[in-house]
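Record type: ASSEMBLY
Status: queued
Input:
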Amino acid sequence: MGELPFKPSQPLSLGVELELQIVNTRDYNLTRGASDLLGALAKSKHPGDIKPEITESMVEMSTSVHESHGKLVAELRTMRDAVAAAAHGLNLGIAGGGTHAFQKWNDRRIYDTERFNHLAGLYGYLAKQFTVFGQHIHVGCVDGDEAVYLAHMFSRYVPHFIALSASSPFQQGEDTLFDSSRLSVVNAFPLSGTMPLVHHWAEFEAYFSKMQGFGIVKSMKDFYWDIRPKPEFGTIEIRVCDTPLSVDRAAALAAYAQALARYLRLERPRPISAEPYLVYSYNRFQACRHGMEASLIEPCDGGSASMRQDLAATFARIAPHAEALGCRPLVQGLLTGAQDSGNDARRLRARLKETGSFPDVARWQCEQWMQPSK
Amino acid sequence: MPDLFFLPAAPLPPNQIIWFGVLLLAGVIGGEVARRVLFLPRITGYVAAGLALGPEGFALIDKALLHELRGFADISIGLILFELGHRIDLRWLKRSPRLVLTSLAECALGAGLVYFTLRTFFALDVLHASAAAAIAIATSPAVVMRITADLGAEGQVTERALLLTALNCSVAVLALTALIPWLYLEYRGGWRTILLHPMYLLAGSFALGLGASAATLALLKWLGKREEIQAVLLIALILATIGAAIALKLSVLLALLAYGALVRNLDRHYHLAAPDFGLTGQIFFLILFVLAGANLDLHAAWAGIVIGASLAAVRFAGKAVGILAFVTGGRMQVRQGLLLALALTPMSGLAVIMLQDTQSLFPEFGRTLASVVLPAVVLLEIAGPVLTQLALKFAGEARPKPAEKS
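Status: finished
Output:
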């Protein structure tokens, strides 16, 4: 047994974390509301867990572990309703979206805990700029070796998750021309990027011990990778998604991850290799910048395909697995429905064009997130 | 014609523009001294600067001049009441009826205790005690808004302090207006005056506010959402409304509160962005506090120190009990409730204006009323900003000091 034991978990089990924006209902700017909101939620009963994040304008809700996406959707909706009810009582708005459209980063306040104060001291202005909002998807793995395999295989699909979830076109009151500008904020951190090219869990443990020995990291939490194994949960964690504008879309993204994981672990389409990482940054940038209009390069043969073609091809491959998991319509809707309607970033831009006002966009985001599912 | 006709005559003829500059300058210096040297809120420095310039200090400003400068104070209080009215979010109140109960309890208990104390321990008659109690309902909106902005305070205590202030100011003004018929009965006036004057004040001020809101929304619909233009447009309409209220002998307080509240709650299509008067707003805030300082009558306050201190104390007690009765068990904690009550202690310009308005209708009654209420106003004019600042800091809602590289 190494120093970083991997807790086995039910394969393909699912959990979702959503970082959410807390805004006031006057001008819809981010506001200091996390401690009040968490105080109010402590008095109500709800499933899952709702926790503080690095600044006072964010809160994170995380679901319990589920084997079927159906239960995950139901729990996400119940939690959403609890958060929305507490926020209504405090006259706060809660919104999805990877960034807040017009907040000024230096107005943010660090949530007062030891860890967050430490991070603020360590990272300086990056800590306050880290007021961006992501969705993390956990997929259960039987053991560490499977986690390593899946983490590498998922990197091929990172552009999909970016484009489908992208909802951060605006930052600091400007259109960034990116669909997901949030990930550029993550890039600034020294421990961001991808997992090193290890093939087995034992190899990963050796890597981790070395980094720990150097004093570079204390725990797995210090790595801000796009995909990272989470040994204490027994999962891999996909961290590239922006928080979508609704929990239903968040659930659909999780279902896609689940179907993909089933395909990868049962069919084992490729061995672990360095090749996909040659095009990784390029494809990732394409997805961030252009979203559904991105053009991607296939790592093995160097051929290029549009995001839409690649999504359709992927769906054809994983459809039987989605079927087996009972989430085929949901995944199909996400992967191919997105071709007609675009992603949340496109919807946000349309909203800005219509109203010409960032506060109006933020108010609409709150309505989208807080309203009960139809 | 003398050769040197082009030189000014001595003594220099004063004009309002000079005074505007002098007041601002004194306020800025006073504010910075208070903040940097004494670690007090800037507002306290503004008031002190006014006090130093006024009849009680170096007497650069005398009573006659104060009267002449009343226009500046009217503009300031108009801007403040508009913004305050805009804080009244009916949708929030509808969703959280507990807030309405908190507000009513806070107003009723504060006023009730003040009334009881004045009647029992100071042997005041019913009318004086009622009018004083009505004025004591209001928290100084200028102080709460300025301190909140200076501290960059955000959170539930801040939000609720602003909302409860907006509500208690409205209740105070309405209560005082409702006393007018009884005052007429006591002092003078036929039945037509008794009935029609308060109705004219209420309906007229409300109608003016409604008209201004309708005009604002119509203009905004056409102008669109350019925030810098919105601010200028709002200031223009607010000035016009203040002037109209004065000309029509309506209540500036009611008209502007109604304007602010209506323009927000009638704005179904969100034409109006949150008002931000920026630098202009700050300048008029400052002027208001300097003038309030110059108006302070320390001798009278000292003479009435007992009644002033008792009034301030029971007013706080009433507000605190009223808030705690409804706030706990809701979404707030006891500690937050107490800090909220503390944040609501300031009394200031609004009380003075309510006194002046009463005095202009009933001079004799107004004078005796002022001797009862003013000591508390002076006390809370000085202590209030400090208390509000402490409350918001203890609530953890003030903006933390910026990080420095060590």
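Annotation: The mean pLDDT of chain A is 92.
Annotation: Chain A touches chain B at residues 24-27, 31-33, 35-36, 39-40, 43, 86, 88-91, 107, 109-110, 112, 120, 124, 355-357, 359-360, 363 (CB under 8 Å).
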